[in-house]
Amino acid sequence: MNPIVQSFLHTDTSTFSYVVYDHDGGAAAIIDPVLDYDAATARFSTCSADAILAFVKEHQLTVQWILETHAHADHLTAAHVLREQTGAKVAIGQGITGVQERFGKLFNLEPEFLPDGSQFDHLFTDGETFSIGELSGYAIGTPGHTDDSLTYVIGNAAFVGDTVFSPASGTARADFPGGDARKLYQSIHKLFDLPAETRLYHCHDYPPTGQELQISSSVAEQRKGNIHVGGYTSEEDYVAMRTARDKVLPAPRYMLPSLQVNIRAGEMPPADANGIRYLRFPLNVLGTAK
Q: Cα–Cα–Cα angle for 159, 163, 165, nearest 5°?
């Protein structure tokens, strides 16, 4: 059985979120939801999450899963908000513990924060199966962009996170802590081994000037035309290209707030004694001086 897929575009971060379901009145999963965040005021809102909830209500869906493809560095997740509203389980790949350990140290979150994945309801392993009502799915470990990156295959649809974008946009960066261009190449070829007609649903797209955002592409289109890894691109050529390209990419705008929230499954840090919650920003640690 193939899923029904409804996409939601968060224009500020060029992020696609998805509701995946079996039929009206049935079961659903929400994939990569976004929490709206204003960097100037450090204020968040739930407009984007509310739009997803309105769709769920309209179609009388029971949300069973909130699935994260990885701990995103370019937007804050609305997983915690949606879990509170739906009672669904929040899941991510088991590699999240390494991401939590790495960034927990960067933000000096211990001892109140434990890098054990317990903030999530379920940690998927490579090849693990799951169901969404009448739908059957399984997880594919696709590290490289991050070491917790995961693809969810549900029927003829695969939700690939940042592993690949549209063929015209290429592939994700691999220079975050824990990223690895060689692993990313190998993960992409796992996706290329899926049936040619499988639809790969992107988490982002950054098209060339004049081209529209592309929500999904087929495996066949990616194999043939991905500008970074399509055709007969070798692993060595890809690693060289990806490494050189990543050296000149700017850091994502919302990287610092996103990572310390997303490794908590979207829950904000605990309040200080004055009742206010705070995010942390390490100075002169990341990037280079300009």
A: 80
Q: What is the pLDDT of residues 42-81, one digit of tens each?
A: 999 999 999 999 999 999 999 999 999 999 999 999 999 9
In whole angstroms, give the CA distance from residue 203 to residue 160.
Answer: 7
Tell me if 213 sits within 8 A of 14, measured CB to CB.
yes
Structure tokens of 178?
């824990």
Cα–Cα distance for residue pair 154/222, rounded to 1 Å: 19
pTM of the full structure: 0.96
CATH of domain 4-262: 3.60.15.10
Residue with tokens 């994939």: 31
Longest CA span, the chain: 59
For the chain, the domains span 4-262
Going by C-alpha positions, the residue among 74, 73, 81, 80 that lies closest to residue 103 is 73
Q: Count Cβ neighbours within 10 Å for each residue of 99-110 and write b for 16 or more, e otherwise.
A: bbbbbbebbebe
Give dist(CA 189, CA 164) in Å, integer.
11
Contact 151, 164 (CB under 8 A): no
Question: Angle CA(14)–CA(15)–CA(19) in degrees, nearest 5?
Answer: 145
> How far is the C-alpha of 160 from the C-alpha of 68, rounded, in Å?
10
| Tally of CA atoms within 13 A in the half-sphere of 248 that contains its CB | 4
Rounded to whole angstroms, the Cα distance separating 228 from 274 reads 50
Those residues of the chain that have pLDDT short of 50 are: none
